Amino acid sequence: MKAVAVTEFGGPEKLALMEVARPEPGQGEALVKLDYAGINFIDIYMRSGRYARSHTYQTPLPMVIGMEGAGTVSALGPGANGVAVGERVAWCIVRGSYAEYAAVPAWKLTPVPSDVPLPVATTLMLQGFTAHYLSHSAFALGPGRTCLVHAAAGGVGQLLVQLAKARGATVIATVGSREKAAIARERGADHVVLYREQDFREEVMRITAGQGVDVVYDAVGKDTIARSIRSLKRRGLCVNYGGASGLVQSVEPLELAEAGSVFFTRPHLADYIATPEELRGRASDLFAAWRAGALRVNVDREFPLAEASAAHRYLEGRNTKGKLLLRM
Question: Is the pTM of this model over 0.85?
């Protein structure tokens, strides 16, 4: 089969389209014939070697990358339950989706309802699950809460803004351009800050009358984390879930105290979809919201599998205005 793999860590040029052996489904696994693979920053972290020390997201070389996909079950391994051959499914946080086939633990597969297009289902996996756990679990938003969402016009950002508003929260969004500001407003953001023209911390304090926000959702990382922490109200929470500008290497504990005895966390999605019940519960919520028209999914671009390198360059350039997909 055709697959995109890396044999050494590095830039987008290290992604190579090659012929590899089709995987055989092992114990408890299903073989999925892919239609789409999602493109996410975690793929960049794995390709570049930034996750080389991660035990949760291991990166053995050589490896087929890609942590999100959707397609049809073509075979079942021994002991695989919960899905059937011919069923449409989607998944995330199992490596190997930049390929025509992938072997996936059956319990990690989400059956896709017949009325949900596969591009939508793919988007609602890694990015949708991330937005869901951020707004429902890492910090349970609700009426009277105020959150700061960085990169609000990106793939996760657009979904997170919508889920935050659905839970009754006030949303302050940061974006990099006026075009992206319009997108954030369309998704429901109450306030939009152009971070290249405005100091987002000053704007947060102005908007909140000096109080700060309950929670910051920061996927930008190195360039924003210090001011994100200082944008919190007393005993607020900063959630760093990505590093578009570079991964955060350290946070001084005393800085958390000086910022108002605030909290800091750097979660992995894998820990928030750790059981079949949790995974399918989040999927059910997201599919229902999309079906009801309460959650808009925006696919920015689709790239053919052979153009994975171009897709990574586009993502790393922070050009995205929604989801990026690889089409098999």
Answer: yes
Place of tokens 């989607």: 90
Token pair belonging to 201: 């911390």
- Choose the CATH number for 127-269 among 3.40.50.720, 3.40.50.2300, 3.40.30.10, 3.40.50.10490: 3.40.50.720
| 250-274 per-position pLDDT tens digit | 999 999 999 999 999 999 999 999 9
Half-sphere exposure of 268 (CA within 13 A, CB side): 13
pLDDT digits (tens, 9 = 90+) for 157-181: 999 999 999 999 999 999 999 999 9
Q: Where are the domains of the chain?
A: 2-124+297-327, 127-269
* Domain 2-124+297-327 CATH class label: alpha beta
Phi, psi values for residue 279, rounded to 5° = -60, -50
Nearest C-alpha neighbor of 131 from the set 165, 164, 153, 95: 164
How wide is the angle at C-alpha 309 spanned by C-alphas 307 and 312, nearest 5°? 115
Q: How far, in Å, CA of 247 to CA of 265, rounded?
A: 13
